[in-house]
């Protein structure tokens, strides 16, 4: 897509700090890192989100995430790595080109809000009804 910043990064039209590339995937450092080593993995072929991305590209991204998370572990020794992926503006996806965030967690880092939601017991009848609705819609 011509006006997509991540497509421009793949094409080298916008500079980036690349950490990995293969036939399907490009991975680079986030310019607003939540922590050192905050890495984005994207498909080279434009797809907006999890609804749009092909199975092959999604597989390639997740295989790359395994390789890169190992490199992060070896290079930075984090205490954990949060893998975060947002779909749609309603979920705060800002760049509309699929990307998986790898966010290394270091001792003393501020909490990631997405990883610290409060656990409140659900209404099991409502949970069951929703599960049935989703299960019935699976194609
Ligand atoms: P989202 O909220 O869409 O999941 O996150 C988009 C991410 O892309 C943000 O963390 C933001 O810092 C990063 N980002 C936005 N523009 C650029 C850019 O031009 N270069 C790089 N490397 N990262 C970017
Ligand atoms: Zn794009």
Helix-strand layout with pairing:
Layout: H1 5-11, E1 18-21, E2 25-29, E3 39-43, H2 55-76, E4 80-84, E5 100-105, H3 124-137
Bound molecules: guanosine-5'-monophosphate and zinc ion.
Guanosine-5'-monophosphate binds next to loops.
Can you put this structure into words, describing what you see?
The protein has 139 residues and is an alpha+beta fold. It has one domain: HIT-like (HIT family, subunit A, 2-Layer Sandwich), CATH 3.30.428. It is built from three helices and five strands, in the order αβββαββα. The protein is globular, with a radius of gyration of 17 Å. The model has no long low-confidence stretch (mean pLDDT 95).
Could you tell me the CATH topology label. HIT family, subunit A
Give the uncertain stretches in residue-range form: none
Q: Span from first to last CA?
A: 29 Å
Q: Report the bound ligands by name, code or SMILES.
A: guanosine-5'-monophosphate, zinc ion
Report the top-level CATH class: Alpha Beta
DSSP, total strands: 5
Element pattern in H and E: HEEEHEEH
What does the radius of gyration come to? 17 Å
State the major sheet: 5 strands, antiparallel
Supply the number of helical segments. 3
Structural class: alpha+beta
Quickly count the domains.
Answer: 1
User: Could you give the order of strands across the largest sheet?
Assistant: 1-2-3-5-4
- What is the global morphology? globular
Provide the helix percentage.
25-40%
CATH homologous superfamily designation = HIT-like
């Amino acid at each position: 897509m011509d006006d997509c910043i991540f497509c421009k990064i793949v094409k080298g039209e916008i500079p980036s700090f690349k950490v990995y590339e293969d036939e399907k995937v490009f991975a680079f450092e986030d310019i607003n890192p939540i922590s050192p080593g905050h890495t984005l993995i994207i498909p080279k072929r434009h797809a907006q989100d999890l609804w749009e991305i092909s199975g092959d590209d999604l597989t390639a991204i997740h295989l790359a995430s395994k390789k890169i998370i190992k490199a992060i572990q070896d290079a930075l020794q984090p205490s954990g790595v949060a893998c975060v992926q947002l779909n749609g503006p309603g979920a705060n996806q800002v760049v509309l080109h699929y990307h998986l965030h790898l966010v290394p967690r270091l001792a003393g880092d501020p909490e990631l809000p997405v990883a610290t939601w409060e656990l409140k017991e659900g209404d099991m009848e409502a949970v069951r009804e929703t599960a049935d609705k989703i299960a019935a819609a699976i194609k």
